[in-house]
Amino acid sequence: MNININGMAWICQQDTLTVSQLLQIKGISTQGTAVAVNGRLCKSDTWDSTYIKEADEVSIISAAFGG
Q1: Secondary structure (DSSP) of 5-54
Q2: Per-residue pLDDT tens over the stretch 2-46
Q3: Kind of pairing, strands 8-11 and 40-42?
């Protein structure tokens, strides 16, 4: 699956991916992190149930990610 993270293309080997899984794979701490999918802010309590789809735009703001 191809997605964009902060404007950079990323190829994921998984067919399905939640916001929580993405953060874990990328090694990003959930503390102090904000995530938006296609311009819509995702609350941290929905990260386990928010699925990222092919060609989605994901924005991550986190000190651990450098943002």
Answers
A1: ETTEEEE-S-S-EEHHHHHHHHT--STT-EEEETTEEE-GGGTTT-EE-T
A2: 999 999 999 999 989 999 999 999 998 888 899 999 999 999 999
A3: unpaired
